[in-house]
Known about the structure:
Strand content: 5-15%
Bound molecules: iron/sulfur cluster
Helix content: 40-55%
Order of helices and strands: EHEHEHHEEHHHHHHEEHHHHH
CATH superfamily of the largest domain: HUPs
CATH topology of the largest domain: Rossmann fold
Radius of gyration: 23 Å
Shape: globular
CATH architecture of the largest domain: 3-Layer(aba) Sandwich
Distance between the termini: 30 Å
Number of helices: 15
Amino acid sequence: MTVKHVLGISGGKDSAALAIYLKERHPELEVEYYTCDTGRELDETYELIEKLESYLGKKIKLLQAVKPKLETPHDNTFDHFLAQYGGYLPSSTSRWCTKKLKLDPFENYIDDIPTISYVGIRGDEDREGYISKKPNVQSIFPFRKNIWSEDVIKLVLNPKNIKQLRQYYLQATDYNNHNPGLAYIDTPVSENFTLKQKLNALLDVDTKLFNQAVFQFLKTTNYPVGKLDSFPLIENEDVLKLEDVFRILEVSGIGIPAYYIEKKYEVEIDGQLKQGRYARSRSGCFFCFFQQKIEWVWLLENHPALFAKSKEYEKEGYTWMDEETLDDLEKPERVEAVKREHYLRTQRNSQKRTTSTWKDEIIQAEGVGCASCFI
Ligand code: SF4
């Protein structure tokens, strides 16, 4: 049975680092790389994809929801669907963009082939992301201690499957009843011992043993991983965090995508000129509605043409942010207020935390969004 292994390159740091990591750690995996082009990415994203292609020695397949016009190869995808939606801009509550521009092209590309999709959500994140739920697609998270998706965990730890899981534990440990994981397997999920706690307990006792048991279990299901003779990721015990991702990018020579690199800004606070720092915290479309106000200000000051282009999309009643238009946001007094608020907030946060504020900002911003756009 052919099982496809794929990795979506969003243009962000985590998917890029995962591509490098898998090539180095698991060269035996025949991974196909793809990227879904919305036509409204930052130039830095296209540059990152070019660099990755040369590092991986492979083409990254460009998936476009609409056939591009030759003279504007990156230009017409988003606009095509915007016209279909009557100019209705996407938002966090109506995210047609992710579905039409990312998920649909991906699902068309893999068709009905059993597919393992590697997702770069890190070990210091607590989210699953907006991922394909097609039954022939299984997501694997190599940067986390728990490499399995929520649906797999719920199935494997379902009370009706516990006997089977116990059996795999016993087989893997030569029927040695002293394995401490067995006690956790037998403990039912309750208010005092949630599914998450049960999972973490089993992973903490012996990650490889748990993964082996899950692999055996999947062989009795239709999940793509279960169709493989062997799966090297079950031996995985790595947990990679934000600093590891930056390290991987730097060591590989690919470098951190340029929009993550902080720039200085000045702002007046109580009559004194202070110096703050801002950057973009995510990849994705330059006008993405998930971005924070300070990121809009960053766009205005670092990519004024893209800010102007974003403004062109705002029509009566259709704006990127709920409470203000880009016309209002770009007024000097408003820009100053956004910087002031950002400066004071980052100062407060840096007093509370021990890690760097820049990384905190990225982690906070990642709380929302999706695995398709910002990984
Ligand atoms: S980056 Fe933002 S605007 Fe672009 S497709 Fe993703 S959610 Fe939509």
